[in-house]
Amino acid sequence: MNLSISGIVRTTLVTAAGAGLVVGAMHSQGAFAVASTRAVDTATGSATSPVRSASLVCPGPELKGLKGVADLDVGVRVAAAAAPVRAMTGTAPAAAPGEVSLSRMPRGSLGAPVTARGVSLLADQTRAESVLVSGTESMAAGVAAAQNWLVPSGDQRSLGGAACGQPGADFWIMAGGGAPGRQERLLLTNPGGNAVTVDVTLHGAKGALSSPNGKGIVVPAHGRTAFLLDSINSDLANPVVHVVADGGVVGAVVNDLWLDGARAGGSDDAVPTAAPSRDQVIPAVAADGQAVLRVAVPGNDEAVVQARVLTAQGPRALPAGGVIRIDGGTVTDIDISALPVGTYGLQVRADMPIVAAAVVTRTAPGKPGDFAWTSSTPPITGVAGMPLAVPEGTSAPIQRSLSVTASGDTASVEVVTVDAQGVETSRRPEVGVDATAVLDVTGATSVWVHRVGGNGQVRAGVVSWLDDAQGRLITATPLRDTALRTTTVGLREVSH
Predict the structure, then answer these.
(1) Residue range 16-60, pLDDT digits in tens
(2) Fewer CB in a 10 Å sphere around the end CB: N or C, the chain?
(3) Terminal Cα-to-Cα distance of the chain (whole angstroms)
């Protein structure tokens, strides 16, 4: 007897800036029957088609919903969009009409859906809830989303935000410090229908620090849990958080907030790094004064680590600390404050898997400060992008630049921006070997990046900043692939 099983679908997840996240984009079809004799499956071919359902999760207001701690009156503006067709690397969207929508978790819509590509959907979220971004049918492929906020004065003065991302079961996130007034909150979002338990471990200069407080954290179905990392340890000068979920997947973001004595020190969100590997690249590092490269070794063995900066003219050595040894399980901060003013990529390579991120600080004597975290990302294989929303309360104009890095070889990329009138603009910069190109994207409502030539691995990120009488506010958002296509693998079961 021969029994064929067809239409078993493997979804290619190409996620957005971001951080991007795809949930429930897996489809299956076909029939199954039980054979009375032993059988083996053999592939009979495969086909690809555009995704018809995609979802992302956004953490929502980071400074609300922490048990035992008073909420701070800081909401977020969430923006979502589907990439213009010209930016989708030849992928045609599904034919059936669709939409991009926002909803509160566990329930409740946020604004009217959009049905046109390149058009951004905006909504303000003030509740202590996460936000689910959904794309369907013709609007599913290439969905990206981000949230941001602006606090122009007071203790929480900052410009910050994060890409809405893909849930997973194992994350490394780098943020925070040991200075007085520094506080790190981990926001965990569960998009699934069952509760998920999470274990959290901190790593520092002396290794891993676990605590009963970080074990068995429950994230309710379609819900969010806020967790204060200080409950594990409040003294780490260079904390790295390892998040492991059991029973499902979660979205994870760390908010880093600093009240520097009587002055606001700033705030920003940090998203998960690329998975541990021997080669990490961090895009969109906007050097101008105090800056730090943070590197951690997840495994038990010592790593020999080499770091360099990827400039417009190619790779350059770090001012100091370019080659170091880091013990297994530990974290090291490398001071890169001596870098010339500019926006770069950072490449960190080692003989053992590592994770990496960077933070840049803006401060002036006697003035409040702000800082921006940017994490390493996987290379862009499809299209990456994000909507560029203006946060509520903005009076001065927000400046924005896109940083594109190529590593290993040259790369030609297409950058597509969309303005407030829906007009698309295309630019095609050539990025040199192990180099970075920077483009002004101020005024755009969204930006999208895909490679069109060359063999270099491409990464990108957006730096946003605002100047006022008190100084400069800044945030950075690394971009990740969006979901474009699914792959259907046909199988034939042959009995013997």
Answers:
(1) 333 333 333 332 222 222 223 334 444 555 668 999 999 999 999
(2) C
(3) 8
Q: Contact at 8 Å (CB) between 49 and 488?
A: yes
* pTM beyond cutoff 0.85: yes
DSSP 308: E
Question: Contact 294/359 with Cβ under 8 angstroms?
Answer: yes
At residue 229, the 3 state secondary structure works out as: helix
**Per-state percent for the chain, helix, strand, coil, to nearest 5:** 0, 55, 45
- The token pair at 286 is 């906007």
d(CA 421, CA 129): 31
When pLDDT is averaged across residues 113-131 and rounded to a whole number, the result is: 97
Amino acid at 107: R
Instruction: Give the total residue count for the chain.
Output: 496
> Cβ(275)–Cβ(285) under 8 Å?
no
Q: Which of 269, 68, 295, 74 is nearest to 186 (CA)?
A: 269
Q: Which residues fall within 8 angstroms of residue 495, CB to CB, at 6 or more apart?
A: 1, 2, 3, 35, 37, 38, 39
Cβ-based neighbours of 416, under 8 Å, separated by 6 or more: 83, 84, 86, 87, 385, 424, 425, 426, 447, 448, 449
According to DSSP, the residues that pair with 350 across neighbouring strands are 305
Residue for token pair 């679908």: 9
Residue found by looking up tokens 């046109």 in the block: 116
- Which DSSP letter does residue 266 get? E
What are the extents of the domains in the chain?
49-484
Rounded to whole angstroms, how far apart are CA atoms 152 and 264? 11
**Type and span of the H or E element at 202:** strand 196-204
Evaluate whether 154 touches 48 at the Cβ level (below 8 Å).
Answer: no
Is the separation of the CB atoms in 304 and 350 below 8 Å?
Answer: yes
